[in-house]
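Dear U.,

For the methods section draft, I wanted the exact inputs and outputs in one place so we can describe them consistently. I've listed the two proteins in the order they'll appear in the manuscript figures. Please don't edit the token lines directly; just add comments below if something needs changing.

First protein:
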Amino acid sequence: MLSDASFKRYQRLICLPEVGESGQKKLRDASVLIIGCGGLGNAAALYLSASGIGKLVLCDDDVVEVSNMSRQVAFRNDDLQQAKVIALAQQLRSLNPDIHIRTVQRRMDETSLPLEVSLADVVLDCSDNLHTRHLINQVCLNNSVPLISGAAIGWNGQVIAFDFSRPSAHQSCYACMVPKGTAIKANNCSEIGVIGPVVGTIGNLQALLTLQYLVSLNEFMPNQLYKFDGKCMDWQKLKLLADPDCPVCGGKRQSVSEQEETLLCRQLSV
């Protein structure tokens, strides 16, 4: 049962027929792992904590710098040079003291990531480099844990969910979209730039997809790539088909046409 205080705090969520008290209990009992506490992680963590996710695990090895402040909106000037996970946790506890937050102040690697993923109900990839993204994808697939991956650069952003908890012959993975070893120039915010609201938009969508999954919303759609153009305010929704030759999830997958593979599998924003 929810306490009277919890019922009052989450009343606007509970009154939604798709959530109700049972859905709010699912959120309270859920554990979400957020890898990367930059702009995406800031936005996602704020809304997940406000929504009553019972446990958040924040992973990042970086510190707050003044150049972060234009898009990483959970941080304050007093947080400069403090570890991002500590600064973000402080803000989240101030927003919602009822949730449990654990911080991991290190970069996730082959040793630490499998344990963290195995303890999570959902993983949010808010990281900023290809190596980490591919590692997260592999470990989530191995542990049958859903993955919500987001990215933003310049005026553009994208988000996609992979439901590895339900193995399927049609299930794709991040490596189907961005194959390992593909010659793609990795974009970097410090070199190319990024507009803050686009980062917030994608982070919020990661939180929204997480809530959809946790309350078992019928409309939750994995393998759908949502692409946003902040200049033109345009959205694209593309079906990511599995690559039968994918070294991560291939071997039992359906084919992907050359045209679709070119369209869906050769773009990267971090």
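Second protein (the one for the lower panel):
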Amino acid sequence: MMNTTLLIVAIVVVIAALALAWIYVERRRRARLRARFGSEYDRTVQTAGTPARAEAILANREKRVSEYKIRRLNAEQRDRFSEAWRRVQENFVDDPAAAVTEADLLVTEVMTARGYPMSDFDQRAEDLSVDHANVVNHYRQAHDIAARHSRHAATTEDLRQALVHYRALFAELLEQPVEAVRRSA
């Protein structure tokens, strides 16, 4: 009788230890995803409906993007893109709508140069969220304003905001702080 009781207690202890280990691992994984994706984590949870689904989506994004050959820009590319950005900002004064269109094209060109595949917008934003979660929301907001502009529903202030959002993303993609890009204008 004593051996059976001891065996049952041992099994219960092992099962409890395994359950606690699993909970610990899951909490660490969730914390890692939250830290990596920031507000994109919350956005994905809201879209997916549950944290478990969102975490599976984010893990799949990480896996997909890890297979891309993302590269840093060389000095010549950074200089060329910085000069192009300076011209976009200068053009805003005379033609805000054209400047926003140019900004979108320039961001796309930089993403292409870095090695991001250029599928549809949602896919690009998801891909960016893996390594640039802190600015992907800027990309979404700029894109939304550009879409409103295409329907003639954006004001000049909206277009200015779009350019500010594109600038934040552009600076991140060039691996420069926003202040450095602003000073080049």
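Candidate sentences for the figure legend, describing the second protein: The mean pLDDT is 89. The chain has two domains: 2-66, 75-183.

Thanks,
Y.
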